[in-house]
Amino acid sequence: MFHLLPREIESLWTLFTAPVIWAAHFLLCYVAAAFACARGIDLALVRLGVAGATAVALGGIVVAGMLAWRQWGFGSGDPPHDEPTRKERLLFQGFATLLLCGLSFAAVVFEALPAVFLADCRP
């Protein structure tokens, strides 16, 4: 089976990928909105930027989730993965990464919602 990314990329760093993408998206969106409101810039441009950043962030989280799904063995092993073996550790890491990807996906969607509903910088 062809894989876009090699298996060697699956390490402990993949566990942190989705939360880091979420944090970067959070920082970018809220700094851009604060800067636009402080400078009196029209929020239509910021809303467009938030939409683009959200699409990129969700795409990155989906890719991380696909890697986690592959590392978890495509759901073949049921939790808990508590045996002291390398295989069980990788299954646990894949499952935990998949859960973090789901949480980060939901967080990105919910933090982008103010850009959908808010049209100006009124206090």
Describe the structure in your own words.
With 123 residues, this protein is an all-alpha fold. The chain has one domain (22-117). The protein has three helices and no strands. The longest helix is centred in the C-terminal third of the chain and has 32 residues, at 86-117. It is elongated, with a radius of gyration of 18 Å. The termini are far apart. The model has no long low-confidence stretch (mean pLDDT 83).
Question: Brief description of this entry?
Answer:
The protein has 123 residues and is an all-alpha fold. The chain has helices spanning 13-39, 43-71, 86-117.
Main sheet overview: none
Low-confidence blocks of residues: none
In N-to-C order, the SSE pattern is HHH
Question: What is the number of strand segments?
Answer: 0
Using the alpha-carbon principal axes, give the shape: elongated
Total helical elements: 3
Taking all Cα atoms into account, the compactness measure Rg is: 18 Å
How many domain regions?
Answer: 1
Transmembrane segments: 12-36, 48-69, 90-110
Keywords: Membrane, Transmembrane, Transmembrane helix
Please describe the topology of this protein:
Layout: H1 13-39, H2 43-71, H3 86-117
Entry keywords:
mainly alpha; 0% strand
